[in-house]
Automatic annotation (TrEMBL), chain A:
Described function: Involved in beta-(1-->2)glucan export. Transmembrane domains (TMD) form a pore in the inner membrane and the ATP-binding domain (NBD) is responsible for energy generation.
Pfam families found in the cross-reference section: ABC_tran, oligo_HPY
Topology class, membrane: Peripheral membrane protein
Keyword Ligase in annotation: no
GO molecular function, one term: ATP binding
InterPro entries cross-referenced by the UniProt entry: AAA+_ATPase, ABC_Ni/Peptide_Import, ABC_transporter-like_ATP-bd, ABC_transporter-like_CS, Oligopep_ABC_C, P-loop_NTPase
Protein name, UniProt field: Oligopeptide transport ATP-binding protein OppD
Automatic annotation (TrEMBL), chain B:
Function of the molecule: Involved in beta-(1-->2)glucan export. Transmembrane domains (TMD) form a pore in the inner membrane and the ATP-binding domain (NBD) is responsible for energy generation.
Keywords, alphabetical: ATP-binding, Hydrolase, Nucleotide-binding, Transport
Source organism per UniProt: Bradyrhizobium ivorense
Name of the molecule in the record: Glutathione import ATP-binding protein GsiA
Membrane topology summary: Peripheral membrane protein
Cellular component GO terms, alphabetical: plasma membrane
Coiled coil: none
Ranges of residues in domain ABC transporter: 6-257
From TrEMBL, chain C:
Keyword vocabulary terms for this entry: Cell membrane, Membrane, Transmembrane, Transmembrane helix, Transport
Segments crossing the lipid bilayer: 44-67, 108-132, 220-245, 272-292
Family to which the UniProt record says this protein belongs: Belongs to the binding-protein-dependent transport system permease family.
Protein name: Glutathione transport system permease protein GsiD
GO CC terms: plasma membrane
GO annotation (BP), single: transmembrane transport
ABC transmembrane type-1 domain mapped to chain residues: 108-292
UniProt-listed SUPFAM superfamilies: MetI-like
Major localisation: membrane
InterPro entries in alphabetical order: BP-dependent_transpt_permease (IPR050366), MetI-like (IPR000515), MetI-like_sf (IPR035906)
Compartment(s) where it occurs, according to its Swiss-Prot or TrEMBL record: Cell membrane
Membrane-topology annotation of the record: Multi-pass membrane protein
A Pfam family annotated for this UniProt entry: BPD_transp_1
Length: 329, 330, 307
């Protein structure tokens, strides 16, 4: 049994100008110790998916449906009280903005200790000891001193390390990381990515990594799932996805990112554009959501939404035409 | 060959740090501390570096959005850093800007038509109101937006479309140089490609020079001619595109390049220790000495100057000055 | 979404189709126009409806079954509310219903005038201090000083210097309210000056006066409008307090504060004298505040947070 099984997850929001179908029928699973990356552009529903897993979506105006089975237990059916026992304990989360996700008036140690005292019933001293241990684990120098500092005394990279320490304090089985390095500079991002890789080996938690950066995906994930307009369009093992993307959207995304080393090839290549804009999620989309921007689209695509089809080992994509290529290949 | 379009000589911008009841000046942020470079006509020079390195401050100094602390900014042979507001206005036409955030860079209460007409009116570029109308419409064609969008307001557009409006506004003044301050950083991947391609096309079409300020090295490599790498208010390396991406000279450039995560590439990143020091109190000697993997005594005592390493490459590092520079990871 | 789609294509065999999923929420009726706006923002609707009624009452006070509010009738003193005297009469036999209705005029006049005058003056001072660096220090210290005096005390002090008249009441309260607007406008101006579109305008050669007129001023109006409603409410309260302590509207003009002041001595035996003007004051202030809250939510939500 997979650690996390998400089935037909739907998250809709009521807004003054229509129903926003932010996530509309997303299914995936994550095995123990595995890292799944969810990638897509802004508004594709990747962050809403992660918030929905933790049930951090306010209802109303939101509404979540489907099933989120964590160790066989459907989190969507739990009471708010039971859910609180899950959050930060079995499942924890790292956010993009370390500054706004840390409480500015509490010391770092207090904030890490809080989770431990709440979930593991540790006393004050034990919690602080464990906090120091956690800061040490995430590579913060002088943890015994840092534990008494406030978030504003730390740099951006340090704060993200503290966030990770906090998330890992209770030995979660699943870690949801929502754009954990997006707000950081490249050299700091490299530090944090290395830390995450290192921790993955040592701690063994499964990770759901939300990101828009395909480079980051290549760095730590084993499997990738690509989202577009609230739907899942493709999923594959990382190397396979980068080598032979099936969905035209994934192909477009990969072509639109310039790669380092382009100066070696000499002649300036034009970047592949994906024409047009992401469709509005506030209107029901008929057919394939990508049809309006896709060079291969036909009337079939515009009228019948493609389902996810197997294209190769562990590789699925939702495209009527990629299917034919796969059959031929 | 004629003089370069833009020359920046030993530019410094120090922002005061005020504290206490009466806001006494208690120190300075050395945002830009002695930067020199040139941009030729039709050329793209990229300023790269991490946040706080002063690259945006350089851009804003060239735009004369504030008074500089010292140094010279010379546009087409004329100093613009000491012009009076009246004289400056005429020069402003020649340097325009595209900002990062497509949402805050357009006045939410103005129609696209008025946004584009503003620079044309300011610089009296249109002969008549019919001419103005024609120019505004032509600008929309140039940035590939429909003409009927002229009567709409910014919030009715997506991020990429807004960035196109921002570019059209910059073009409206018929500039020689456009400062692109992280102009594509906030955009989604697929839209980013559209805007990068557009900027390249416009450069060809109008012979524009671009000062491309960015932290995204892959985009920079894709579209630049030359690169200047900044660290804590100084340029640590400057070189033509191919040189900097294939044979970086400065340890910081190497680390920066190796830190970019890349799909499908086996890498061995140089992980720098620690964080960028504060620009209020930059390290003595070489500013990079606190994080440099190759640091030695001289780096802590003496600040290295930019030195030619041949082929238009300039590096500010004591290692480069040594007889045999280490053939390190790069 | 139901399966009522008219397909013009034939489905090839073996086609994989995405499962049809239900809509989780009822469809939203998109509301447009003024009525749509009001339905979407009920606080604005209730607030402005109440306020509109009060404005009509103030304008048409003479035609709403009132008598001369200053007419004395010693024989009919302190009558309880009845069919003849809806709100009763006061200790001089004047009809409280008529007095309260005419009092609406004073309150609304003071409230609206102060809101407009304080906003205009505050806007001017705020713009200067947001744009002229050397003036900023001086103006702000002066404003700080002004703010350190409670507005009511300041108004009382100012009233002590002049004769009681509605005009002077308005002036006194305006002076006391200016600092609030100034602070707001200065804050908004300083944050707007940092906006990239202002930099872009500077770079495209727009002169400072034009930048203020075109890029700064229009974007300060929304937060100022919200602030103005709060000032209006607070001005009406201050006017009543001033009148209540005899430092405001002269006793010859019926105002809610005056009526309450006169009924104060009889509060325990004839509570209706105080009750009706107090109730009108509360409802009016409530209406204005509802309008302000609603506008704050309806206008740019980012700006609203700075209030």
């Amino acid at each position: 049994m997979a650690l996390l099984e998400v089935e037909n997850l739907q998250t809709h929001f009521r807004t003054p100008d229509g129903i926003n179908r932010a996530v509309d029928g997303v299914s995936f699973q994550v095995d123990e110790g595995e890292t799944l990356a969810i990638v897509g552009e802004s508004g594709c529903g990747k962050s809403v998916t992660s918030m929905s897993l933790m049930r951090l979506i306010p209802e109303p105006p939101g509404r979540i449906a489907g099933a989120v089975r964590f160790q066989g237990r459907d989190l969507l059916q739990l009471s708010e009280r039971e859910m609180r026992a899950v959050r930060g304990n079995d499942v924890s989360m790292i956010f993009q903005e370390p500054m706004s996700s840390l409480n500015p008036v509490l010391t770092v140690g207090r904030q890490i200790g809080e989770t431990l005292r709440m979930h593991q019933g540790l006393d004050k001293q034990a919690a602080e000891l464990r906090a120091v241990e956690m800061l040490n684990l995430v590579g913060i120098p002088e943890p015994a001193r840092r534990v008494r500092e406030y978030p504003h005394q730390l740099s951006g990279g340090m704060r993200q390390r503290v966030m990770i320490a906090m998330a890992l304090a209770c030995n979660p089985k699943l870690l949801i990381a929502d754009e954990p390095t997006t707000a950081l500079d490249v050299t700091i991002q490299a530090q944090i990515l290395q830390l995450m890789l290192d921790l993955k080996r040592r701690v063994g938690a499964a990770i759901v990594l939300i990101t828009h950066d395909l480079g980051v995906v290549a760095e730590i994930a084993e499997r990738v799932m690509v989202m577009y307009a609230g739907r899942k369009v493709e999923e594959a093992p990382v190397a396979r996805l980068f080598r032979s993307p099936r969905h035209p959207y994934t192909q477009g995304l990969l072509g639109a990112v310039p790669k380092l080393g382009s100066s070696l090839t000499g002649a300036a290549r034009r970047l592949t554009e994906i024409p047009g804009q992401v469709p509005s999620l506030k209107k029901a989309i008929e057919g394939c959501a990508f049809a309006g921007r896709c060079a291969l689209a036909t009337d079939l695509c515009r009228q019948v939404a493609p389902g996810l089809e197997v294209k190769g080992p562990g590789h699925i994509a939702a495209c009527h035409y990629a299917a034919k290529e796969a059959a031929a290949a | 060959m004629s003089a370069p379009l833009l020359q920046v000589n030993d530019l410094k911008k120090h922002f005061p740090v005020r504290s206490g009841l009466f806001g006494r000046r208690s120190g300075s942020v050395y945002a830009v501390d002695g930067v020199s470079f040139e941009v030729d006509r039709g050329e793209t020079l990229s300023l790269v570096g991490e946040s706080g390195c002063g690259k945006s401050t350089v851009g804003r100094a060239i735009l004369r959005l504030f008074d500089i602390t010292s140094g010279q900014v010379v546009l087409d042979g004329q100093r613009i850093d000491d012009l009076s507001p009246g004289g400056l206005r005429a020069m402003r036409r020649r340097v325009q800007v595209v900002f990062q955030d497509p949402f805050s860079s357009l006045n939410p209460r103005m129609r696209v038509r008025d946004i584009l007409a503003e620079p044309i009116r300011n610089f009296s570029l249109a002969k008549s109101s019919a001419d103005l109308e024609m120019r505004v419409a032509a600008l929309m064609d140039t940035v590939r937006l429909p003409r009927d969008a002229l009567n709409r307001r910014p919030h009715e557009f997506s991020g990429g479309q807004r960035q196109r409006i921002g570019i059209a506004r910059a073009l409206a003044a018929e500039p020689d140089l456009i400062v692109c301050d992280e102009a594509v950083s906030a955009l989604d991947v697929s839209v980013k490609a559209q805007i990068v391609n557009l900027l390249q096309d416009l450069q060809q079409q109008f012979g524009l020079a671009l000062l491309f300020i960015s932290h995204d090295l892959a985009i920079v490599e894709h579209m630049t001619h030359r690169v200047a790498v900044m660290y804590l208010g100084r340029i640590v390396e400057m070189a033509p595109r191919q040189k900097i991406f294939t044979a970086p000279g400065h340890p910081y450039t190497k680390a920066l390049l190796s830190a970019v995560p890349e799909p499908g590439a086996a890498r061995n990143p140089i992980i720098l220790k620690g964080d960028v020091p504060s620009p209020i109190n930059p390290p003595k000697g070489c500013r990079f000495n606190t994080r440099c993997p190759f640091v030695f005594d001289r780096c802590k005592a003496e600040e290295p100057q930019l030195r030619s390493a041949g082929d238009g490459q300039w590096v500010a590092c004591h290692l480069e000055a040594l007889p045999e520079a280490p053939g390190s990871a790069g | 979404m139901t399966v009522s789609t008219t397909r013009t294509v034939t489905l090839p065999p073996g086609l994989v189709i995405a499962p049809q999923l239900p809509d989780l929420l009822r469809p939203v009726k998109i509301r447009r126009g003024v009525l749509g706006f009001l339905r979407g923002h009920p606080t604005v609707a209730i607030g402005s409806a109440l306020l509109l009624c009060l404005v009509l009452v103030a304008i048409f006070a003479p035609y709403l079954g009132t008598v001369d509010p200053t007419a004395l009738a010693p024989a009919k003193r302190t009558r309880a509310p009845s069919a003849d005297f809806w709100f009763g009469t006061d200790m001089l036999g004047r009809d409280i219903y008529s007095r309260v209705l005419y009092g609406t005029r004073v309150s609304l006049t003071v409230g609206l005038s102060v809101a407009v005058l304080a906003s205009l003056a505050g806007l001017a001072v705020g713009l200067v201090s947001g744009f002229v660096r050397w003036a900023d220090g001086i103006l702000m210290r002066f404003i700080d000083g002004l703010m350190s005096i409670p507005p009511i005390l300041l108004a009382v002090a100012l009233m002590a210097l002049t004769r009681g008249s509605v005009g002077n009441v308005i002036l006194a309260i305006t002076v006391a309210e200016i600092p609030r607007v100034t602070r707001l406008v200065r804050g908004v101006v300083l944050s707007l000056r940092e906006q990239p579109y202002v930099d872009a305008a500077t770079a495209s050669g727009t002169r400072t006066p034009m930048i203020i007129m075109r890029h700064i001023l229009p974007n300060t109006l929304a937060p100022m409008l919200v602030q103005a409603t709060y000032i209006c409410a607070s001005a009406m309260i201050v006017e009543s307090i001033l009148s209540f302590i005899g430092a405001g509207t002269p006793p010859t003009i019926p105002s809610w504060g005056n009526i309450m002041a006169e009924g104060r001595a009889l509060w325990q035996v004839k509570p209706f004298i105080v009750f009706f003007p107090a109730a009108f004051l509360s409802v009016t202030v409530l209406a204005v505040n509802l309008l302000g809250d609603g506008l704050r939510d309806a206008l740019d939500p980012r700006m609203a947070k700075s209030l």
